[in-house]
Design a protein that fits this description.
Layout (H helix, E strand, L loop, with lengths): L1 E4 L14 E8 L3 H16 L8 E9 L4 E8 L2 H10 L1 H11 L4 E15 L10 E9 L4 H17 L7 E9 L4 E8 L2 H9 L10 H7 L4 E18 L1
Antiparallel strand pairs: 1-9, 2-4, 2-5, 3-4, 3-9, 5-7, 6-8, 6-9, 7-8
Helix pairs in contact: 1-3, 4-6
Length: 237
């Protein structure tokens, strides 16, 4: 299998057969090194065959902080990921590190997709920004993970004026039982900034449903980061 570059650097977030999602962060230091690292990933993966059939997609986004890269990969199962680790990951990473020395790889987490939502009017729009929202709780509780996500969907459904710049949201449950990841597509970073700055018009409108989300029992932190889509790869069958 060869490597296919997806248009718009956009994975199929609801594709069938995904049993596992791996999400991780690389720190590279500067905007120039962010772009250089993405280019090195594209070269390294592009000249090799796809590692195994269990890897369904591999996506990289550039953090708006000028430092990080966000990696999102879809897998059939943990065994497929471990096969890549055993056979090829070190060699691929070594080639990327030779092009961009000093990459710090941090915060690898495992998830499963739980719920997705998309604005009906947004189905044909291309996201210019991906927003990740990482929620952490004070301990493992799968029922609480699901309950928080369900509360978000209830709040979204009751929002009197959702911001038109939102495209989709894909909520993942951490396999550790204590984390939730929302992978949200937005029309642009400016649209998300506007929604965050004007809660009455978008995210977090002052409704009882949103107040419940924001003060959910056991939630210890919520981290929001913006990213620019950069590269998404799949096997070319």
């Amino acid at each position: 299998m060869t490597v296919y570059v997806q248009p718009h650097s956009r994975p199929d977030l609801t594709r069938p057969g995904v049993g596992l999602v791996k999400a991780s962060t690389w720190r590279v230091g500067t905007p120039e090194r962010q772009r250089a690292a993405v280019d090195a990933i594209a070269r390294t993966w592009g000249k090799r065959h796809w590692p195994n059939e269990g890897l369904l997609s591999y996506t990289v986004h550039i953090g708006s902080d000028g430092d990080t890269l966000f990696h999102y990969s879809q897998w059939r199962a943990e065994e497929d990921y471990q096969e890549l680790v055993r056979t090829e990951r070190a060699e691929r990473n070594a080639e990327i590190d030779a092009a961009v020395p000093g990459i710090e790889r941090v915060a690898l987490h495992s998830y499963e997709l739980y719920r997705s939502g998309m604005l009906a009017a947004a189905r044909d729009r291309v996201p210019g920004c991906v927003v990740t929202v990482e929620v952490e709780f004070d301990g493992p509780d799968p029922a609480r993970q699901r309950g928080w996500v369900d509360a978000v969907f209830e709040a979204l459904g009751s929002d009197p004026a959702p911001h038109p710049g939102g495209i989709s949201g894909h909520f993942h449950l951490g396999l550790d039982g204590a984390r939730v990841l929302n992978y949200a597509e937005w029309e642009s970073a400016a649209a998300h900034e506007e929604a965050m700055a004007a809660p009455g018009d978008g995210i977090g409108a002052p409704t009882p449903q949103w107040r419940r989300v924001q003060s959910y029992p056991g939630m210890v932190r919520s981290t929001v980061r913006r990213h620019t889509p950069a590269l998404s790869l799949t096997p070319d069958m």
